[in-house]
Amino acid sequence: MGWAEVVTAIAAAIIAVIALGLVVYAVPLLRQASWTSAALERFLERDSRPLLENARSVVSEASQIASKLRLEIDGVIETSQDIRGRVKNAVDATEDRLLDLEALLDVLQEEMEDTVLDVAAAVRTTRRGTAVFRTMKRVFLGSGKKRKRKR
Fold first, then answer.
1. Contact of 127 with 121, CB cutoff 8 Å
2. Where are the domains of the chain?
3. pTM for this one?
4. Overall average pLDDT of the 143-147 stretch
5. Roughly how many angstroms between the first and final C-alpha of the chain, as a whole number?
């Protein structure tokens, strides 16, 4: 046998002796435990009752707070949904109005362009008419410079 096996055997023997000592020591404790459990029950019944009542009241209050909090959160969610709906409706209405305004501006621009073209055509016509009248004036009345010199 090698030294490792010898050390292992000695360690196993020591562990067995310790386990046996624990068993011998635990038997009287177990006999006392039956007496101790009755005393423990009386202790728990006498001293734990107020603790349990306090715990129940804390749980009840926490439940009420959770219920109120749930109602408040539901109200906030409902308000948020209402506001979101109103904003969406306002955005849709604004978009419709902007589209109407864009169509109106397009019509106004076309009308302005047509009006400017009409005015330009009228000015051209007036200039031509004025040129024709000047020419007729020169032809029929002579030059305006000569008449001024005669005076």
1. no
2. 3-143
3. 0.42
4. 54
5. 160
